[in-house]
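User:
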Amino acid sequence: MQSIVGNEILKTSFKWRSAIAFIAVAVIVPLVMIGLKLQGDAVVKGATRALGQDFLFLGNILNGYFVTALIMNSLWVHIPFLITLGAGDQLAGEATGGTYRILLIRPASRTRILFAKYVTTLLYTSTVVVFLVALSVGLGITMFGTGVLLVQGKVLTVIPESEAPWRLVLACGLAAWGMWSVASLAFLLSSMVDNGIGPIIGTMAVIIVSYVISAIPVDLFRTMRPYLFTTYLNIWQKAMERPVPWGDLLHSGLVLGAFSIGFLLITWYIFVRKDILS
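Assistant: Predicted structure:
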């Protein structure tokens, strides 16, 4: 099993499509940093405007921790698209390249091959998320230093500097957990089609439709929200609340895990019965 996973990791690593996510992050994050370096004070003033008359903020507000949280909030709608670039190509890419038969003549069963590809998908997803957070923190601290973590959400939350590192580590882990459900959906759609573009479009379509349903203030759609996995994708933001809502984290994490397992089981059912023609 380890050798199969290793082979799949190598295959994924050398695919141009898999590199796009890392290239995009490597370009976008420095550009955002430069923009904040030039006009970051305006961003801080906008975040603290509501409290500016009642509170006096001291210290380095515009710091690496603040910038990292800001980047995660700004880019997280686009991260699922980057994830699907690698996840959606795992099975469909074999069909496109005409290598399904070569892949399945291995002594390993279809189930072992499928799980090797799924493990590779999860590793790829986690690496993209960790790369985004690590690059943001590294560049942010280098350019802006450290300080308290100011998080602008439904309420303005101030996290002490001593708590900021483990909060960001927790947020990174939760973000990866949430993106696993996105990757699992793309992996499922990848087993249904013979073109790598289909899973990407299909996954993003599901996500967009789910977000639209969640945003429309209609009673019917409100009852549907708990059954949409996109409702729980913001699980990482809960790591920035004070105190951390561990009960909500557990609930959201279990729901996302159930969706990921469900997508995987459907993929397995399709794959082991798939009639390979090329």
